[in-house]
Amino acid sequence: MASKINTSFTLIPNQKYRRSNRRPSSYFSNTLGSDSQPLSTLGNFKALPLEIFQIILRYLSVKDISMLSMVSKTVSQHIINYISTSSGSKRLLLQDFHNLELPSKRQDSAILEHYRSLGLLFKRCTLLLPTRERLKYIHKILAEVSCFKFNGCAVPIQCLGLPCYGIFLQTLTAGWDGLECHRVYNFLCELTNLSRKMQTVVCSKPGSARKLELRIRLFCRNVLLDHWIHRSDSAFWLTRILKPWPMVNQARLLYIIFGPVSPQDVVPREWLLENNARLLILSGNNICFTFMASKAVNGRAIELAKLIVFLALVCEKELYCMDWAVKMMQKVCKVFSTPVERNNFLQSVANAFACVIMEMLQSIMSGDRDEDDRSFLNLFHLVHAQANFHKEVLYLSMNTLST
Ligand SMILES: [Zn+2]
């Protein structure tokens, strides 16, 4: 996986090399010297009792400890033991995720940076283990942090736990190939029972499992998707999330993960029509047409007419070619099966222009002053959108007549 920190990491040897070297059964031991590793790889540290070695670690930064862990397997083992001690985990597993009194960006980024360094430390300490063993070990240690758990935090919206967990995992998995990252995703799914939870929300009515929707959104965004620099990485993880589901459930999951949120909770509210129109335009001709054609097939002419108005408005605001909107209307028109239905639809489009203009005018006349400028500008664009739209319709019909 590409990431900005990629280059600063020791590259992990490839799978084959690691397989031949791993010795998981003897890798972790809780007592110094009980294992078969020769102590000589401790170098001058050999003279020191374990307690003193751990006291020295207290004076080192997390980054320095992670450098030290690469000296030898024995040193790395001692460091692993240190992480498991109560003083080690107290120092390393910071849990100050809810500092609401003094919300400061700097404090936020300090704890994120800490978990970035910690990810590197774990990456280096567990270098010789196969992926699954690595993950198991790491999660045994991280199990202490309740805010890292799917349901572990009481105030998930204000919590920095999951973002820290995400940064930690990002650092840990930097440079891993797709297959190994897939293992990571499966491991997380098993750990959190994510698929089962997703099943529950996609099978129930929107908003009926609001808390679960929120947890799923926060987990996917904070742990798996939001912190990547490169879009391809986000796309990789998003593909892991969506791939097992049929298309209709994928759409629902996308909505839960990326849809708009109200300040109180995550339940998506109905979008403004203008935003719907923008999304459709950005989705490309095929999706846009398919969406509109399905409305036409279902006889929802009035709804469709209003959408045409907002497609025209977005074209006007964004300086897209207005003839695109007209041609889209023409194509959709052909979906209606009878001339009567087609004429009704065209009549509805003309009415919808008048209706939306009147609505905007009314809101300006009754609205407060602050809103005035924005509403007025919107109306201005809409009137021009209507003019341009009709100009294109005239061109189309007149040119057809003259040829
Ligand atoms: Zn929390």
From TrEMBL:
<dbReference type="Pfam" id="PF24467">
    <property type="entry name" value="ARM_FBXO47"/>
</dbReference>
<dbReference type="InterPro" id="IPR036047">
    <property type="entry name" value="F-box-like_dom_sf"/>
</dbReference>
<dbReference type="InterPro" id="IPR038946">
    <property type="entry name" value="FBXO47"/>
</dbReference>
<dbReference type="InterPro" id="IPR001810">
    <property type="entry name" value="F-box_dom"/>
</dbReference>
<protein>
    <submittedName>
        <fullName>F-box only protein 47 isoform X2</fullName>
    </submittedName>
</protein>
<dbReference type="Pfam" id="PF00646">
    <property type="entry name" value="F-box"/>
</dbReference>
<feature type="domain" description="F-box">
    <location>
        <begin position="42"/>
        <end position="92"/>
    </location>
</feature>
<dbReference type="InterPro" id="IPR056622">
    <property type="entry name" value="ARM_FBXO47"/>
</dbReference>
